[in-house]
Amino acid sequence: MRIRSVTAHSFGPLHDETLELAEGMTIIVGDNESAKSSWHAAIYAAVCGRRRGRGRARLDEQRFADLHKPWDSDAWLVSAQLTLDDGRLIEMWHDLAGRVDCHAKDLVVGSDVSFEVISDGAPDGSRWLGLDRDSFAVTACVEQAQLLRVLEDADGLQEHLQRAAATAGNDATATAALDCLDEFAREHVGLERANSNKPLQRAMNAVARTRETLQRRQAAHQDYLSRVEDVEELRGDAARKTALLHAHEAVAAAATATVLRAKADRAGALYAVYGDAAPSTRAQDDVLAQQASTVLAAWHSHPQQESAPERSSSDIRAELDSLPPAPDGDTTPHPSVVEARNEVGRVDAWLDQHARSRPPTEVHVPPIAASDAELIDLARTFEVPPLSPRPPGGRHSSAAASGTPWRVMAGAGLVLAIVGGGLAAVNVILGAAVAAAGVLIAAIGLVRGRRGSSREIEPREDGVRQWEKAAARCAQLGIAPDPQVLRGVTVARAQAAALAEQTAQWQQQGSSLAYSSHQAVTDLAAALDARGAKSGSADREAVLRIAEHYERDCQQRADQARRASRRDLLAGQLAAVQAAEDRIARDDQNRVDAGTALTRAAQAAGLAADNPEQAFTALSQWLAQRTTQLEKASYAEREWAELRALLGDGTVADLSREADAAQSRAARLASTNPAKFADVDPTTAADRLPALREEAAAAESKAAEAAGALAELATNLGSVAEAEEAAADAAAELARVRELADTLAMTRRFLESAQTRVHREIAPVLAATVKRDLPAVTDGRYTDVIVDPTTLKVQVCGPTRRWRDAGRLSYGTAEQVYLLLRIALADHLTRGHDTCPLLLDDVTVHADAERTDKILDLLLRVANDRQVVVFTQEEHVASWAREHLHEPRHAMRTLKVTTAT
């Protein structure tokens, strides 16, 4: 896999910025506040995305969001273009905020390939590498000063390491088998835990339950005899409480008889005064007095006159009628239309850029019927003249010495021309320039070499024959016997092939962009149709005009909606004003009605009153004179009412007979239990009756319940023999489950032993990879290494063979050792998958200048096989990059200081 470019649409302090990465090694230089860490995180997010699972975010996920989510925008969006090892060009698109608009799309054929790398509900590009988000972060994506983080996440890498060593990348591992075994044990054995419902706990519960049942049945027989005595005691208590109740009933009856006798005497006295005739009343005057009191109170409480509202209801209703209705349709352009129109703009920009990047015209290639190898052999023949040797010190040695530098120059020029031909496959203009410079240098070397040698050296006989044969072949091919011309043909062929490949790629990209442009216009037309702005045509200009009309219509509808929004406010004001006007009219009418009623009441009482004020004064004086008369009549009416209440529907004689009957009943009850009767307080007897009745009833009920329970206990004692048999069965089941648990434990020990063997196979592979470059990055101090695949801890030693824990070395040395381990892990874990890139942030910050150079040299060698991206703020690293990184294979990028908003 190679990351071609990353675009931070909205990520931390970055907005709509793109970072291009080279195929090999890219060093990105930037000072503090230049967003290096943000770009590093954006590359990781663009490749791997975010988990879209249920539940709350993990602490590391929340920390990532807190650090890199934009503060001034709800949008959090990043994308990248990847080139896979199979040649596919993939666009990774991640909406990190909503985590819904996420996809992995093949940009050549336009198909969505997200299903290939879905992980935790979202596309994860590290799945093409055989990793996942977490393992990619600790293996290939090194944050600033986090090289040792691989130790914290060693557990997460064990599954990948075991799968790579044991099954060559298949999904089955020893850990998975142990997990399956543990799952079987959880389901068929379980733990000895009180709240567990698994077989082991169930069997233990059954043993305890059956033993408890056995003990309970044995104890029940002993309990039965003791409960017989309890029943007899409860029956005696119920009898005592019933006797006490009867005594209180007798005392209460005596008190009732006394009260009835007093009532009969009072009724006789009142009857002697009033007889059967009720006292006279002033009912008519009372009705008139009540009416007078009512109208006086109504007149006194009538409300004061209220002023009218500032705006009348008719004015508000007129304004309300003038408002327009609420518009029907969008008042702001719908996001689908806005996004579709923005997409049209983006595709148009890509088409513009594509048109400006058209390759140059074709290179002319002479039609020579010979291979490149034959033409280069002919050129080499003509570059070395047939010369005969001279004695030492003679003219021959002098001429050879003078011609040698020019032949070296000619050879260097030819090599440069071949390199230029190879560069043309990537960049036609740069390749052509390099090839032309090489041809020119070779021509100068050949010409000057001939001049220097032809004057001093005599031809050899075998060289002449070789020259003549080469010249004949050139004549047959129809080409001049000139090495510059011969090599120029091979250079032209290489340039033509590179140009043809670049032109084909350019045309293919143009077709893809044209299809994208058509699709963007189609999507815009569909979005407009969905919002009711029917385009009626697929014409690009027509669709864009409809979009402009739709936006203008939205603005007009927004203005209309603002005016129509006043309708509810005015309707509320209208209701309030109408209510106030109705209240004022009602209060005015109430005042008139109260005055009329007051005047009529005065006239009904025979009082002179020409207006409500005079009537109010006269009625008030009349009511004061009525008070004394009413008090006397009221006393007589109360005594008459008392007499009627005492007699009810009977007579005085009936009430006297009822009192005699009550006295006889009290005497009869007292005679039944004289001892108890003497102990009862007559003042509280009647009040205690409800409680005594409840106590007596409760005691009798309790005695009856105890007797019933005793009878039921006698029939439900249960069989002791059956309980003993159930306890034995439960103990046998518990023994079976424990035997299964022992078998599973032994099986697990066998699997753990197999897992240990897998670790022993992984360790030498990782150690060998780290050992290869360990002496170079540690300046020869450490030459051997041991890697623990379980914890990923590293031990190193030097020539003295004294082993040291790498984590206890200086921080800079430890980082360099664990950088080698990360490279080894990336190579081992992704074997059989796409090539894993390395994303490194300030990995040389703790190294001195010499070790920094060695680390960078190592990373440059690694970049021959995989993409390496290094972020740094060190000027020494930048100087090294300017000297060693040559485009287009490698590159250096410089970030500008940015200010977060």
Description:
The protein has 901 residues and is an alpha/beta fold. The chain has a domain at 334-554. It is 64% helix and 8% strand. The chain has 25 helices and 15 strands. The strands form four sheets. Strands 2-1-4-5-6 form a five-stranded antiparallel sheet, with helices on one face. Strands 9-13-14-3-15 form a five-stranded parallel sheet, sandwiched between helices. A three-stranded antiparallel sheet has the order 10-11-12. Strand 5 (89-95) and strand 6 (103-106) form a beta hairpin. The protein starts with a strand and ends in a 7-residue tail after the last strand.
DSSP strand tally: 15
Determine the N-to-C terminus distance. Answer: 35 Å
Strand fraction:
5-15%
Helix fraction bin: 55-70%
Q: Which strands sit side by side, in order, in the main sheet? A: 2-1-4-5-6
Major beta sheet summary:
5 strands, antiparallel
Assembly form of the protein: single chain
Low-confidence stretches: 147-172, 388-402, 453-459
Query: What is the helix tally?
Result: 25
Outline type: elongated
Cα-atom radius of gyration: 55 Å
**Mean pLDDT score, rounded?**
77
Provide a quick synopsis of the model.
With 901 residues, the protein is α/β, with parallel strands linked by helices. It has helices at 36-48, 59-68, 133-139, 149-152, 154-166, 174-188, 199-274, 283-300, 313-321, 335-356, 372-383, 395-423, 428-454, 461-477, 483-530, 540-564, 566-604, 612-647, 652-672, 674-678, 685-715, 720-777, 811-829, 849-862, 875-884; strands at 2-11, 14-20, 25-29, 77-83, 89-95, 103-106, 118-119, 122-123, 141-142, 784-787, 794-797, 804-805, 838-841, 868-872, 891-894.
